[in-house]
Amino acid sequence: MTELRKDPIVGRWVIISTERGRRPHEFPQEKVDRHEGFCPLCPGSERMTPPEILVYQKDQPGGEGGWTLRVVPNKFPALRIEGDLGKAGEGIYDKMNGIGAHEVVIETERHDVDFFDLPEERVADVLRAYRERTLDLKKDERFKSVIIFKNHGSAAGASLVHSHSQLIALPVVPKRVMEEMTGCRDYFRFRDRCLFCDIIVQEMEQKVRIVEESGEFLAYSPYAPRFPFETWIVPKRHQCSYEMIEEEQIRSLSAIFRRTLRKLNLALENPPFNFIVHSGAFQAGASEFFHWHIEIMPKLTKVAGFEWGSGFYINPTPPEEAAKFLRELPG
């Protein structure tokens, strides 16, 4: 029977439409052509990107092994780092200059591999780069938050096949982040506990939506997922911001993150997907009630008129079925 489920964090309702239920092989697949010609992210094309902000070199004698990861400013940034905010109002309307930072994390020197096919230590390097860049951007008092995200596949918004992700520092707290922080704050005020910490405890007790568990992290299908096979990864220890992650957590996260993505790739036959690191805003007072996490969203269904008009999402795959299917696959 079809169910309406309420997301306990932001209060959003989701329709779990079992009558439209789909198995993994019934979703459309996207073919990837890696022979796209010239690639500005490959070794030898460094002059085609702005100067690098961060680089990891191959660990070889003499330091002549080349790079394994580069972070560069986006050549076509959504926001630019130079200038003042210039906040102003026009009657009831507010505006400011498009100030921020938009960076590209080139996750590997290899054009022929995906993020989840990298060795665990190389995945860990990407996670370290996220932390390093976030800590640096946090020093700029103009910025209120950082969004870390990856678009994989053209249907998910990727314009280049070469494996990369992005960071955008913003002079405001985005609506989505604010909604999550508000929901977590309200829960904390009522129960004096972190909502995500309580979710972790309940999911570990019920076990029906768990995809994988490690000592430091839990990968699970959320109770009210917007999309089929939507999967979240959350640290078991309470931390409000991603940049608080410690080295042993990075190693643990690289393993469970890689395996979860590989399971999704195997189950759904190389689906386009987005992942987003949801981290607390750069503000005091969020450490008690907010809990950072990663949301992975395969691009399998379309958002259409009903969704835009109502704020509801229709998901044809119950999260319990998705988690069971993924749990049984090798990583």
Q: Your description of this structure?
A:
The chain has 331 residues and is an alpha+beta fold. The protein has a single domain, classed as HIT-like (HIT family, subunit A), CATH 3.30.428. The protein is built from six helices and 15 strands. It has a ten-stranded antiparallel beta sheet, sandwiched between helices. The protein has a three-stranded mixed beta sheet with strand order 1-2-15. Helix 1 packs across helix 4. The longest helix has 22 residues. The chain is globular, with a radius of gyration of 20 Å. The two termini are 32 Å apart. The mean pLDDT is 91.
**CATH architectural designation:** 2-Layer Sandwich
Show unreliable segments.
none
SSE ordering? EEEEEEEHEEHHEEEHEEHEH
Q: Number of domains in the coordinates? A: 1
CATH class: Alpha Beta
Tally of DSSP helical segments: 6
Helix content: 25-40%
Shape: globular
Give average pLDDT, whole number: 91
How many strands?
Answer: 15
Radius of gyration computed on alpha carbons: 20 Å
Percent of residues in beta strands:
15-25%
Helix/strand/pairing category: alpha+beta
**Sheet with most strands: strand arrangement:** 3-4-7-9-8-13-14-12-11-10
- First-residue to last-residue Cα separation: 32 Å
- Main sheet: strands, sense, barrel: 10 strands, antiparallel
Give the CATH superfamily: HIT-like
